[in-house]
């Protein structure tokens, strides 16, 4: 969505996003559609930017966890992952309408209903039941978000502070749950924070250090190349105030942000408030970078430009939470702080390395560590030479929230998932994104890109690019079919995710080319220039792919329907199980019984 408003409003952005997606006016949407769109937008546009570890990495997976509808138990979205369970309920109201106390009270009791459904005391819809079996009810943390565009009374906010209604039989329930209610004003603020997340803090930040008994505020180390590192102690109250002032801009270069309450974060809050003088011994401290560091020894201050915390977001935000509870102890809290300088333009490798090594104790987004590999830089450079419809491509090997402008963006994760799905199957069946960017012998990185330290030659690039553009056209066909099926009231759950379709098309092509004794990779390489074939309605390769897509989609649906007959079948797990690939291949193997492989089309790209 093109974001131009200087003061973004949640309601306006939501409507624009939904109208763009559904190709219709907001006023024409039924209430349940509005609720789903509000939920989707909140997760995609806000939570994925502010707390990326709390939501699915792949935006396409968001719909898998939207459960709004009959028998939803008062839940619009539920996502269990990595010891956390996010639950969202969305209410789209007119600006003058007050939020209903009854609706919010009902949401406060949601975990009890979900627990009953898990124990088969209550029947809820399929999507919720599939999510419930992934929850560790004795250990997971629950984040409950009630979002509304209506007005929220002080009474409801007071009720929210008490937390969700306790559930009998769940130990440490109060310690493992957090309940929040956000009205339209709150959502406006969170949207603006999300839009600014990742922007480099381009103003001077002053950090006052607490001097040691000898009056020394910090120790300065300098490398042979002249790089400087300052190490000292800052107060907890100052760090909390910095977050209050700068919010998410403070972590612009951090590849892992704070993901909400957890046992670790609760421990930080507890030690800061109950043992402030011992805090520096319990905490690992904070690491930060800045493009300019000007020491003021007279006032014990470092003046920093383009300052960013690269490790310690959880500490800073937990201290902010502790300050809300009790500000006095934070004045006595000391936090070890390291600040090092770097050059914004030429030190990208250094920044990547220092961020990686400072975050190795956390579950980071592993794809960020591969962005400077030679192969990734090659892809960035080579895709810039390709165009379609008068627009050039941009391969985004580095995560950036900057708009691609008039260029056609190709995300690194999207690219890797696409190529792997076509050749070997969806990455979720092998271990997900972490597997894809794992460079070990057991990982999938070398299967897609080759060795991390190697450069791509022309033939290797053409194969990767041709593979991607072939799947891009399959995506167009897949979207058209889904839209047509929805209009006709048809439901084919096996085609819910395009990755599985990529595999089926790829496997069918491999079968045909093997039967005919032809080289598939050679023809795929000829698809590496999208401008030469993708926008031509009568291109032979497009006609062939369209026919093969129909056969592959039919095979996927048959495989799904056969698997769904089993009593232990779970829809979501079908897309994650490696056995699914065998089931699809079995259905593809039936095709020669009624369509000779020798008679099926092959790719016919222009030479």
Care to describe what's here?
The chain is of the alpha/beta class and 607 residues long. The chain has three domains: 10-195, Restriction Endonuclease, CATH 3.40.91; 198-364, no CATH class; 374-599, no CATH class. The chain is built from 22 helices and 15 strands. The chain has helices at 10-22, 31-50, 101-108, 110-118, 126-132, 154-161, 184-196, 236-246, 263-274, 279-282, 313-325, 348-358, 374-383, 412-423, 432-436, 445-449, 458-487, 498-516, 520-525, 540-563, 571-574, 579-588, and strands at 77-81, 84-91, 141-148, 177-182, 205-208, 218-222, 228-235, 286-290, 292-296, 301-305, 308-311, 334-341, 387-388, 391-396, 408-411. The strands form four sheets. It has a five-stranded mixed sheet, with helices on both faces. A four-stranded mixed sheet has the order 1-2-3-4. The chain has a three-stranded antiparallel sheet with strand order 5-10-9, with no helix packed on it. Strand 6 and strand 7 (228-235) form a beta hairpin. It is globular, with a radius of gyration of 26 Å.
Q: Widest sheet: strand order?
A: 6-7-12-8-11
Low-confidence stretches at least 5 residues in length (pLDDT < 50)?
Answer: 1-5, 255-263, 360-365
> Could you tell me the number of beta strands?
15
Number of domains: 3
Largest sheet: 5 strands, mixed
How many whole angstroms does the radius of gyration measure? Answer: 26 Å
Distance between the termini: 37 Å
Number of helical regions: 22
Q: What is the global morphology?
A: globular
